[in-house]
Amino acid sequence: MYKGEYIKPILPVTGYDKQSANINKINLIKMKEIDIYKRKAAFAELKQFCTMAKEHDYIEVTEWANGEGFDVNIESTTQANFQITYGQFAALKKLVKKLDK
Question: Are 49 and 30 part of one and the same domain?
Fold first, then answer.
């Protein structure tokens, strides 16, 4: 499919479906180019940090393309995937430090 090209639905559409088809047509026309970029990432096996970690458990942190935060992927018995800004991370570190006292 080429930029601005619209594919007509196979089935006839009426009412709300017709409105959705028109919105999709507008979205296809307004579609922008696809950006390609490289992002920094760090990876580590969890065994060196956590006594409860199993052999293939890991953590991976990938910085956002805009540099304002990062994605965290923790693969273990308790999986976790979340996004956090650098400001939120600074607050988290401060709170954990407070709990360690």
Answer: no
